[in-house]
Amino acid sequence: MNKTDKIYVAGHRGLVGSAIVRNLETKGYVNVIGRTHKELDLTNQAMVRDFFEKEKPDVVVLAAAKVGGINANNTAPADFAYENMQIQCNVIDCCHKYKVKKLLFLGSTCIYPKMAPQPIPEDALLTGPLEETNEAYAIAKIAGLEMCKFYKRQYGDDFISCMPTNLYGPYDNYDLEGSHVMPAMIRKFHEAKVNHMPTVELWGTGTPLREFLYVDDMADACVFLLENYEGEQHVNIGTGKEVTIKELAETVQKAVGYEGKIVWNKAMPDGTPRKLTNVDKLHHLGWTHKVELEEGVAFAYQWFKENVDIARM
Ligand SMILES: NC(=O)C1=CN([C@@H]2O[C@H](COP(=O)(O)OP(=O)(O)OC[C@H]3O[C@@H](n4cnc5c(N)ncnc54)[C@H](OP(=O)(O)O)[C@@H]3O)[C@@H](O)[C@H]2O)C=CC1
Ligand SMILES: C[C@H]1O[C@H](OP(=O)(O)OP(=O)(O)OC[C@H]2O[C@@H](n3cnc4c(=O)[nH]c(N)nc43)[C@H](O)[C@@H]2O)[C@@H](O)[C@@H](O)C1=O
């Protein structure tokens, strides 16, 4: 990539897209562009074609998607399948038609088989049944990863994919119905603290294991791959370290300074029991994460206090 390349970051206002924009700009890329969902609905094929025809980006990062936590995925599978497949098909095919020289597509570790070997190597994809709570999203994302592979095979397009673990940080989604666990915990403990509430309700049993990566680290890995990777197989992005949801709750509770009790709502799903990435490939390529969980949680909570107005949510 050249520093003057026109780089279109789809989803530039989201958790991941905004971090990728920050990272590109810090590294001296001077021509980064974005469009909001309102300005350009990526599910609309004609609009996507018009955009590519007019802008002709050199590089594309596809960080726009319908994204959500366990409850959103579990209760709106049709929307997750339809919107993500539409967005991917439109963007990937336009990247080919308009001769984009590099595309980065984002998968997610939740699209590996539910009972994949742990830590999960890249070649575990498509080797077993999926986790039920995010099956629709996984089917769509698997199709996206595979499409990048097929365009590379048939046309020689330089389309690469990565497989990030659970992410958190600035511009996360704090809507309690639709969010992932980290922003949900930050908001729940913060609200309980300021409102002097004796208990906080969390979901499931607290026993599932998850791996968390601070989003600025993830963005740094994405730009590293754009600059250094051309392989057909996707690359896992994670820390290689895991915690139980109970341990995560204790970490967030401590960072927020909430002294009440946690109540586990076992009527809510646990999701996949464990999903830890094997990050050997990324390490061998030369990239390792920097921000550990406690530090990342402190950064995320600070950002939340400075930027999120819960009274208006
Ligand atoms: N969050 C996580 O833990 C993980 C995320 N990922 C992947 O990273 C990518 C980004 O996720 P994340 O940043 O968390 O999600 P966010 O919800 O924070 O951001 C998604 C972005 O996509 C845009 N968008 C959604 N639908 C459309 C549409 N139809 N047309 C145009 N733009 C649209 C939104 O635009 P607008 O802001 O204008 O509404 C938003 O900026 C996804 O591919 C996701 O699968 C992978 C692993 C973990
Ligand atoms: C990144 C990944 O994210 C999703 O997978 P997930 O990791 O299962 O999602 P999650 O972050 O929402 O939950 C993680 C764990 O945490 C528990 N949990 C406790 N209390 C709350 C709570 O208050 N909110 C939420 N959301 N979860 C809670 C919850 O029960 C679960 O055991 C995929 O759908 C998929 O789309 C995907 O890509």
Automatic annotation (TrEMBL):
Alphabetical list of CDD domains matching this protein: GDP_FS_SDR_e
Pathway: Nucleotide-sugar biosynthesis; GDP-L-fucose biosynthesis via de novo pathway; GDP-L-fucose from GDP-alpha-D-mannose: step 2/2
Residues the record lists as binding NADP(+): 11-17, 106-109, 141, 164-167, 180
Reaction catalysed by this enzyme: GDP-beta-L-fucose + NADP(+) = GDP-4-dehydro-alpha-D-rhamnose + NADPH + H(+)
Chain sites annotated for binding substrate: 188, 203, 210, 270
GO MF term set: GDP-L-fucose synthase activity; isomerase activity; NADP+ binding
Coiled-coil region(s): none
Active-site residues, Swiss-Prot/TrEMBL: 137
Site feature location: Important for catalytic activity: 108, 110
GO biological process: 'de novo' GDP-L-fucose biosynthetic process
Gene3D superfamilies reported in the protein's UniProt record: NAD(P)-binding Rossmann-like Domain (3.40.50.720), UDP-galactose 4-epimerase, domain 1 (3.90.25.10)
Keywords: Isomerase, Multifunctional enzyme, NADP, Oxidoreductase
Enzyme class, broadest EC rank: oxidoreductase
Recorded superkingdom: Bacteria
EC number: 1.1.1.271
SUPFAM superfamilies to which the protein is assigned, alphabetical: NAD(P)-binding Rossmann-fold domains
Domain NAD-dependent epimerase/dehydratase: 7-238
Protein's job: Catalyzes the two-step NADP-dependent conversion of GDP-4-dehydro-6-deoxy-D-mannose to GDP-fucose, involving an epimerase and a reductase reaction.
Family named by the database record: Belongs to the NAD(P)-dependent epimerase/dehydratase family. Fucose synthase subfamily.
Name recorded for this polypeptide: GDP-L-fucose synthase
